[in-house]
Amino acid sequence: MAELQDQDPARWDDVRVFLAAYRDGSLGVAAGHLGLDVSTVSRRLAAFETAIGARLFDRTRQGLLRLDAADIVLPAAEAMEAAHARMTRDASALDAGAEGVVRLSIPPGLVDLFVVPSLPTLRARYPRITLEIDASVRVVDLTRHAADIALRSIRPTGADLVVTKLNSAPWVAVGSRALVEQVGVLDSWHEVPWIAWDRDLASLPAARWLAQHVPDADVALRTSHFASHISGAAVGLGAALVPTPYIHKAELVPFRYAEPLESSAADWPEDDLWLVSHRALREVPRVAAVWAFLKDLSRTIA
What we know:
Number of strands: 13
Largest sheet: 7 strands, mixed
Strand content: 15-25%
Helix content: 40-55%
Number of domains: 3
Structural class: alpha/beta
């Protein structure tokens, strides 16, 4: 790729055309979204390729085929888009520019019970945003752009990250209403069967609490799938330790316990919820739109 200083500088209008072409994969579709004719879009895209000294697309009968150089240029182009949005930011500008793929990394429980049920609201406002969700407990590297936005229970560190704390919630022992009423007031945590985390997640605070305070527990189910903890508890399989926002969502009931158990209950873990993005992406319109959506959604996860 030729050095930029040896080329004519890339203009914002041409960068905007490149972004539309990259996202739409077609000169015609990009032209329609930009309100331009196809020949103008083709001419500006060629000017952008000349300015950066690299061919970005193969023109085929099926549309535009992205080349590796296009993927390399995309983050810098989106950074220019974000800078332009900051200069002209208002609600309509954000809405108009919010398009493309946003990759999310979110723990499974949040995805199943909170995020996915709320997506019609996001879709109605931003129909040109496509979400890709990695619903797992593994921590992805945002500095390597493995995701655009993450929700995490542990605060990440890094100068390149933008981090916002959304809320905090304690974990509590819960079960189905029938099971809670059947056992009454617990004198020992061993009086009920438990739904436990599998061995690959033995380091989770909730798993460590169970290992410490209910050794040799009667384990009815051992799984690393959080939704199975919720559904198992809901059908009366046993007790589960879950964060408080899930209690009413899943129609669960906290167990009642006698005074000797108060000290161990005081040791229940507490989760913080952090919203995280890479600093270079945070103001990109599509990322900013999903960031605002998740921030609003967090008010229902308290």
